[in-house]
Amino acid sequence: MNKYPARVRGSFPALIAGASLLMSLPASGDMVSERCATAAQAFVTSLSAELRPSVAVPFDSDARREWAFRPGSDIRKEGLAFRDMTDEQRVAAHRLVACALSSQGYQKAVAIMHLDDIVMANFHETVLASLPGPFEMGAEFYWLAVFGDPGGDAPWGWQLEGHHLVLNFTVVDDAIAVTPAFLGADPAEVQRGPLAGWRVMGQEMDLAFALLASLTDAQLETVILSEDLPQNVFTGTAGKGGVLTEYEGLPVAELDDGQQQRLWALVAEYVNNADAALAAKQMERIRADGLDNIYFAWMGPRTPGNSVYYRIHGPSILIEYDHGQDLRSRKRKADPNHIHTIYRDPSNDHGEDWLRRHYAESPHHQ
Domain range spanning residue 71? Predict the structure, then answer.
């Protein structure tokens, strides 16, 4: 018997109240790191002595690179769930969640958390209802952890982890890496009730179909890798960042000006989930790789309303989008209303490139 009642836990306005805590737009990345260090210290300080060890984790812990987008506390080795926070601690937690995100990115994150409340309110309609529980889903079941000391000069970071939402942040010498970032949505479009028509990640789909529709038949022959769909995104779990070793599809250099504008708009939809200063620096890195080295690929049908997969892949960017399993059917088919996405920087996930240079160049590491 599921011990968590199938109802909406908490109110959506309470979830997004933290939006008012966002500070004004920073001028540079170092200002973002200062803001986040302050937020992280405040969050840790708000915790009791008993709770701090589960939240304040050493930076060199293997847990920093471990994450999963599945629900449940049984796979979480660190962090504190929103369920177990006081209101004061939740306010501090939202400050930390928001500090390195744009308003767009922050609203997507808290909306994804709220979508789990909607699933639980209609739990009886899903295949999960026939499986043994309990099912720890809902806005309460997202875990926040801090790695290292945000008050010192050494690298540190933080992670928000739960169903359909994993955000990893790594601070190295005031630079902040914001990947890997997993964002999913189910339902991607709410079908009924007061929020009917609400789409949390609609642009990720609409912009991709607009780009695909602009391609010529010759371009489509190269872009479409398969009419069949993969079972999931290839790099959507911890330790899978290196699975896609070769670029596939059509180089961006072979798109015309209008098509390139559509491609960059799609890339920006993912990159701009980060704070504007961080996103601008990442876009510079991506563009610097050269149009010949960035590829667009597609799998599955070509028309909206179907389950599809697409990928944008280059030295400094890896975006994957696909449709997850239909939770309301036992046929295990892909559901166009269930989205999975992963955004990575193959050259710098978890700040690995910056960390190598930091450890090589910092005098105290010699």
Answer: 12-179
